[in-house]
Task: inverse folding
């Protein structure tokens, strides 16, 4: 089983300039990857033994002063090697489409739905990309920094789940 | 104690044919003009929840049935979405602690510990030895309490009502100890960044030991009623089986992952707070069915009792908060008498604990699995973004796979075995 | 609670006379069948109130019925957000008269400390409430006190005819 540094070096060699940076804030390993090659990097990492996708987090960096507003963070863990790695992608506001990884890891299914619900990332190829936490009549994306926190939206009823049955 | 419902130990081994094989087809005597293929068979759609006793109030299942078997299911959650993550961005780090209590409200202190552990790692403070051991004792007591609610409710949903009372009575004794310690019954908010809110009261250790004496008896009563009970075994063995690779792919952690046979426990893999010095076993199941999930939890309760005993023996004296004036509030008598302490207190309350900019992910072995906090800080006293990695969310994601192919009555057994707490699921 | 509180007249011939209202009142208040609409943490405290240590069965309200058609007291314990609001309203409408509502906990009374885009700031925005229980979560004793208050409320109301005439008029329009 390779150790974490050699896996990161291998990713950098194989994907060249798709890997923007890699550093260790507070001791955790973080790789920043370009949006165009994110799926290739993640499937390579899955083959290298990262069989757990713990979480997909979205961050709205509006007040952090970056050039691209959003970021998506994939939190990976390897059971056999006991290694943790986070893979970050910066996503500009104008183009929030990302490839899905729900066929690589089953846990990505709902994690991507939540990222869509809260921020508006569109994961292409996802079997059922609808809102999961907010109700389906909700307009807007709640965790963006420009969504006012006090703005509630009434729902008029419960949603029809028959299309969901067929899709997933 | 043998009863008429207790199974012979020979019957419990599974060398025979699988129990839920469908019966052999029956030859029907029908006229030539009609055949079974002419019968108009439509699937039936039923909606379960969100107001249903077995869904614990807060999620919805929509199922397509073929007779009694579920062909397809769709799960809808979000009925307790309370906007924790957005609210946390408007409060400072200490004010977020009561919100974390309400994530997995059956074991509120464990969420507090997980959150404070992440913030402390980001700040770079090391908590005092006494606080570490107190946090271990509290987390293990909460683990016992959480498993009691889960197993009790699970058995009630299957139909075994008495176990609920046995467990709840023992749980109330433990809750009395925690109420004397923290002042609250369910949402304790006792842990602070850098230590604890206040020190242990007098007589805490004796009270804990006395309360823990009721737990083995309750476990023994429940096991005696349920472990070899024919009805329970028929309803729980080989129901809702999740194989180990599937469990890993779906992101299962905690007792449900260990019931599928995967040896993964953060207390062993990435030990924190002296867990590597304690002697306890990680309980692993074999098949990943409902039976294994229930009994992994019961065995984990026994292991937690061992850990608390050992922790009480090594409990050191000393201060409970770190000596860092940027993190911990000064004591009240100094605040009222010294000018610097007064200003320090003022700044900490108004501006909050200032955490260096950056991001961190830190996780703890909560009773339900890996509870992680991904915190992004911009250098101020308020968190820029907190993302919770809830164990229940990923367990619920796997529910669809678990129930398809089973009968409607099995949904209840499977669902309750996953220990879905909506506060954590929806945040 | 026994038969105290009902004004009866005992006759030597072995009969008791009383008013119909009193008997209905006695029956209704001592056998409230709750529908626990427990969504969040207050649900656990409600479960503790049902357990043998706090024992709400002393007051007759232990028979939980999860169906709105079979219950007359709905205990909303926990946060109600905009997604589940229509469901709560529908369940309330499906209950038969006379029906009573207890709003348990800070979140149900006023939204609690979740003052944001997702939470309804108090269920009295969608259904009429009889008793509010503050607390986060309230102790099981407070829950039992609320049931006693509902019983006292039943004592003061006429037992025949709709409880809320203005809502009946609106619905039949």
Result:
């Amino acid at each position: 089983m390779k150790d974490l540094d050699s896996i990161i070096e291998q990713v950098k060699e194989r994907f060249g300039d798709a890997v923007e940076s890699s550093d260790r804030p507070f001791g955790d390993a973080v790789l920043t990857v370009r949006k165009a090659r994110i799926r290739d990097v993640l499937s390579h990492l899955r083959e290298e033994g990262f069989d757990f996708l713990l979480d997909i987090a979205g961050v709205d960096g509006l007040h952090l002063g970056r050039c691209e507003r959003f970021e998506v963070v994939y939190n990976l863990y390897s059971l056999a090697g006991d290694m943790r790695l986070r893979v970050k992608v910066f996503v500009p506001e104008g183009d929030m489409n990302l490839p899905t990884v729900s066929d690589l890891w089953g846990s990505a299914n709902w994690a991507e739905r939540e990222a869509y619900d809260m921020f508006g990332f569109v994961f292409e190829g996802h079997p059922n990309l609808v809102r999961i936490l907010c109700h389906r009549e909700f307009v807007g994306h709640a965790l963006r920094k420009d969504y006012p926190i006090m703005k509630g939206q009434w729902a008029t009823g419960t949603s029809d789940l028959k299309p969901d049955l067929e899709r997933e | 104690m043998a009863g008429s419902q207790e199974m012979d130990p020979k019957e419990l081994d599974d060398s025979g044919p699988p129990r839920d094989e469908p019966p052999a087809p029956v030859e029907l005597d029908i006229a030539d003009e009609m055949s079974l293929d002419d019968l108009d068979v439509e699937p039936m759609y039923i909606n379960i929840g969100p107001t249903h006793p077995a869904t614990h109030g807060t999620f919805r299942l929509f199922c397509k049935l073929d007779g009694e078997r579920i062909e397809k299911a769709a799960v809808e959650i979000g009925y307790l979405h309370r906007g924790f993550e957005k609210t946390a961005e408007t409060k400072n780090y200490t004010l977020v602690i009561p919100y974390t209590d309400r994530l997995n409200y059956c074991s509120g202190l464990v969420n507090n510990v997980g959150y404070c552990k992440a913030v402390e790692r980001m700040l770079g403070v090391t908590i005092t030895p006494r606080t570490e051991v107190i946090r271990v004792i509290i987390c293990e007591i909460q683990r016992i309490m959480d498993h009691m609610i889960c197993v009790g409710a699970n058995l009630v949903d299957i139909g075994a009502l008495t176990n609920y009372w046995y467990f709840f009575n023992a749980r109330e004794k433990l809750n009395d100890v925690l109420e004397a310690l923290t002042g609250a019954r369910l949402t304790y908010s006792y842990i602070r960044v850098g230590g604890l809110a206040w020190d242990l009261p007098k007589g805490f250790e004796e009270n804990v030991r006395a309360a823990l004496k009721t737990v083995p008896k309750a476990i023994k009563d429940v096991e005696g009623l349920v472990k070899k009970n024919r009805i329970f075994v028929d309803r729980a063995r080989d129901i809702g089986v999740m194989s180990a690779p599937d469990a890993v792919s779906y992101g299962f952690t905690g007792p449900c992952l260990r019931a599928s046979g995967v040896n993964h426990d953060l207390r062993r893999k990435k030990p924190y707070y002296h867990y590597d010095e304690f002697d306890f076993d990680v309980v692993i199941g074999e098949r990943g069915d409902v039976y294994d999930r229930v009994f992994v939890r019961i065995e984990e309760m026994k292991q937690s009792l061992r850990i608390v005993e050992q922790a009480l023996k090594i409990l050191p004296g000393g201060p409970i908060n770190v000596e860092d004036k940027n993190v911990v509030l000064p004591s009240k008598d100094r605040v009222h008498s010294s000018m610097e302490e007064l200003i320090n207190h003022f700044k900490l309350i108004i501006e909050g604990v200032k955490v260096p900019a950056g991001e961190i992910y830190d996780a703890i072995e909560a009773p339900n699995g890996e509870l992680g906090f991904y915190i992004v800080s911009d250098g101020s006293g308020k968190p820029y973004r907190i993302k919770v990695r809830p164990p229940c969310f990923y367990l619920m994601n796997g529910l669809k796979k678990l129930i398809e192919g089973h009968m409607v009555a099995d949904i209840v057994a499977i669902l309750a075995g996953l220990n879905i707490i909506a506060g954590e699921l929806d945040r | 609670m026994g038969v105290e509180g009902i004004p009866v007249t005992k006759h030597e011939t072995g009969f008791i006379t009383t008013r119909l209202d009193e008997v209905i009142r006695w029956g209704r208040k001592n056998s409230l069948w709750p529908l626990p609409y427990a969504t969040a943490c207050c649900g656990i405290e409600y479960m503790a109130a049902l357990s043998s240590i706090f024992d709400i069965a002393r007051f007759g309200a232990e028979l939980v019925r999860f169906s709105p058609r079979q219950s007359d007291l709905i205990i909303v314990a926990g946060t109600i957000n905009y997604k589940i609001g229509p469901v709560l309203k529908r369940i309330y409408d499906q209950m038969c008269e006379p029906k009573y509502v207890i709003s348990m906990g800070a979140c149900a009374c006023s939204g609690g400390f979740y003052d944001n885009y997702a939470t309804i700031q108090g269920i009295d925005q969608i259904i009429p409430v009889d008793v509010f229980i503050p607390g986060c979560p309230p102790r099981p004793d407070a829950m039992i006190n609320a049931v006693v208050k509902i019983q006292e409320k039943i004592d003061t109301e006429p037992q025949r005819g709709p409880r809320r005439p203005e809502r009946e008029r609106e619905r039949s329009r």
